[in-house]
Specification:
two-stranded parallel ribbon; mainly alpha; flat; 65% helix; three-stranded antiparallel sheet; 451 residues; single chain
């Protein structure tokens, strides 16, 4: 009897893997929206691919990748280098690029399939919200195929795809950060106003002070470690420009006219944007290809050795670790939350649909723990845009894990190009301009509602 029950339970689990998202939610979990569970599961696929990429660049694992058939030898070239060159130190870089391509192709496929899905009544919605086992098989199949892509110009071309995708994902990060900062400030000011407690104002002041103090300390360290009294002009100019821009947006955020138009704007948002801008500046300077101006520069050549003045280190450095943490937080934010601001929802193509309210009430009243369909009358997020966001996230994490490095002109050394520096710096400028626009927009366009 127990064996029969076990077989039935196994069959039930298999059917869940092939079925919809509600079936995958265990009985101990609270009731949740079908759309939220689907987004979390797709995000899990992205995190799974990221974990595999991280494992592949661990030095001990990287050295074993040459055992994969045709991965290091037999393809005619490695990263565009003829096979007589040892590719041992390039294997992790190559593996991460293949994994990034596989994840990007997977999400691009679903982005195309889900074009113009309006509600869960569309047959394609069942594909979006179900068949998870088969989706996993598709991802595995694409990954295996990606490892057999001939080298040739693949790495050089895919590097530029990664650069463009990463730039766009950094912009998405900035939109989410600005939205989070505004929501945070509004929540605490609302709590302070409702409770008449000065503790909320004190907390705002303390957090703002910590953000600015951290930013100032970081800028000082950037001047100390990434510039020299003579030379390193680019680093001095970039740090100084971003410092001036941060001071400008901070001053604008507390101008009387800005405060009248947006009572909730203030230094908390400006301090958080300043701290993120300092991080992006640090990340950019960590890619400066001049050893004298970049103490964290990583160097690898085709023989796995280094010169006497260039120390070989692993791919892990502090900017990459911080970037990985931000990547995880942003992708989770995209998956589980819609903004409190209609303008951000419109920009990110996410809306909290009223569809499924009856299903939610029924789930609560019945006491059952399951996912309910909240998209019968309309989807709560744009399926295609969501997959494109995950595609950009896959490209961003691919570039982050490889430190934005690429083979040099001789195709014998992985170096950091100036392209990475300027992409990150331009993204920081775009973020500051975007935040500045959120401050002045009510004054420039007084007829529009920016509440």
């Amino acid at each position: 009897m127990g064996a029969c029950l076990g077989v039935c339970s196994l069959v039930s689990c298999v059917s869940c893997l092939c079925g919809s998202a509600p079936c995958l939610l265990c009985g101990c979990c609270p009731s949740a929206k079908n759309s939220t569970i689907s987004r979390l599961l797709f995000t899990f696929f992205l995190f799974l691919g990221t974990l595999v990429s991280i494992i592949m660049i661990i030095p001990g694992v990287e050295k074993e990748l040459h055992k994969l058939p045709g991965f290091c030898e037999g393809s005619g070239s490695v990263l565009g280098v003829q096979t007589h060159v040892d590719c041992g130190s390039f294997l992790g870089h190559k593996a991460v690029y293949r994994m990034g391509f596989a994840m990007a192709a997977f999400f691009f496929l679903f982005a195309m399939i889900m074009v113009c899905v309006r509600s869960s009544k569309d047959p394609r919605a069942a594909v979006q919200n179900g068949f998870w086992f088969f989706k996993f098989l598709v991802l595995v199949g694409i990954t295996v195929g990606a490892f057999y892509i001939p080298d040739g110009a693949f790495t050089s071309v895919w590097f530029y795809f990664g650069v463009v995708g990463s730039f766009l994902f950094i912009l998405i990060q900035l939109v989410l950060l600005i939205d989070f900062a505004h929501s945070w400030s509004q929540l605490w000011l609302r709590n302070a106003g409702e409770s008449n407690a000065k503790g909320w104002y004190a907390a705002l002041c303390v957090i703002t002070f910590i953000f600015y103090a951290t930013s100032i300390a970081a800028i000082v360290l950037l001047y100390v470690y990434y510039t020299k009294p003579e030379g390193c002009t680019e680093g001095k100019v970039l740090i100084s420009i971003n410092l001036i821009l941060c001071l400008i947006v901070s001053a604008v955020s507390i101008l009387p006219k800005i405060q009248d138009a947006q009572p909730h704007s203030g230094l908390l948002q400006a301090s958080l944007i300043t701290l993120y801008t300092v991080y992006v500046t640090w990340s950019a300077l960590a890619n400066v290809p001049t050893q004298a101006c970049n103490p964290t520069l990583l160097v690898r050549n085709s023989t796995g050795s280094v010169t006497a003045t260039q120390l070989l280190t692993t791919w892990w450095d502090a900017p990459s670790i911080v970037g990985l943490i931000i990547f995880i937080l942003c992708t989770l934010f995209i998956s589980v939350r819609s903004s409190d601001h209609p303008q951000v929802n419109k920009l990110m193509l996410t809306e909290e649909s009223t569809a499924g309210v009856g299903s939610e009430a029924a789930a609560v009243e019945s006491g059952l723990h399951h996912a309910y369909d909240n998209e019968q009358d309309g989807v709560s997020y744009n399926y295609t845009f969501f997959h494109l966001c995950l595609l950009l996230a896959a490209l961003y994490i691919m570039m982050t894990l490889t430190n934005w490095y690429r083979p040099d002109e001789s195709l014998r050394v992985l170096t950091s190009p100036w392209t990475a520096v300027w992409v990150k710096i331009c993204s920081s400028w775009a973020g500051l301009l975007l935040y500045l626009w959120t401050l002045v927009a009510p004054l420039v366009l007084p007829d529009r509602d920016f509440s």
